[in-house]
Amino acid sequence: MIAEPFTYYEFFAGGGMARAGLGEGWRCLFANDFDPKKAASYAANWGGDHLTAGDVWAVPPETLPGRADLAWASSPCQDLSLAGRRAGLSGARSSAFWGFWRLVEALDRSGRAPRLVVIENVSGLLNSRGGADFSALCETLARQGYWFGGLEIDASLFTPQSRPRLFVVAAREPPPAELCLAGPQEPFHGRRLTAAYDRLPPAARARWRWWSLAPPPLRNLTLADVLEPDAAVAWHSRQETARLLAQLSPAHRLRLDGALAAGGRRVGALFRRMRVEDGARVQRAELRLDGMAGCLRTPGGGSSRQFLLVAEGGEVRTRVLTPREGARLMGLPDEYKLPARSTAALHLVGDGVAAPVVRHLAERLLEPLLSHASALAAE
User: Fold this and answer.
1) Tens digit of each residue's pLDDT (9 = 90 or more) over 41-78
2) Class of domain 6-217+351-378
3) d(CA 35, CA 87)
4) DSSP 3-state of 260
5) pTM of full prediction above 0.85
6) Where are the domains of the chain?
């Protein structure tokens, strides 16, 4: 007998990277994103049957079909401010998360509360406004009757990209003991998360669970493994490369010189940062040669654009990371359809969730939680 797939709503869906990670054992009931370009990419890859493009505040609760096993929300990183709690459409981006949450509240009132809720955001949420925003989120989940806990997962465990993210997993039914730990444990419960837990009020702490999540097998993929062939991409001119290398700090220049002296082929990631040196703001290029890319970001200039550097035969070449390479760093297959324009494609992948992280989370925690809930309901 073939098991029925788990069902889910995907909010702030972007190009459907959470959907890519959940995989074939899950069925989407509803998806939503405000950005028409991202919604177009979602439809191009997954079809538009369950997709509603537009502001989450404009979604009527009654249009959400059935009772989903999971409501996934990868809300924009600035959207959990307390200021947006009831701002509605007038609150714009600062209230998007609360637009999602009022749907969860409405579903609960009609007896259709999602069995699981996953809220994915940048790890900076743990310290936002001195921890007040994270505490507000946890109190909200506790008031709604969920058991919940946080996990900090870096995509670098799965793909050659440094991308730490916070995942708050909330369960409607009391979770089984085998999915919970007695206390925080590395690598998914770091000091920031522990400190954020310590700041929670007693009512929220009573509902907190330290989720047990097994680490994945060791990653064997490096940055060099996801790159296009040298002849298939456009490289910077010598002058452009020289200008970029001139922004290296002395320490990073020594790092590059060491790679050149070692010989062979070395592939590195290069990205720019504004630094304060002797009281002045200076733009610096920072180089990493550890086989990893820096965190992909939405392209807007400054530190957002990531470059690649290849040191080989005593020479250095540089270029911009391509959208397809960015998609591979997010764990997306080459069959995934990207926007034709590079900027739009880089924006899409830089604003998403790494698919292998979602798959691991689903396999090792979400699906066991749902199986446990189903067993309780059958008793």
Assistant:
1) 999 999 999 999 999 999 999 999 999 999 999 987 65
2) alpha beta
3) 20
4) helix
5) yes
6) 6-217+351-378, 229-321
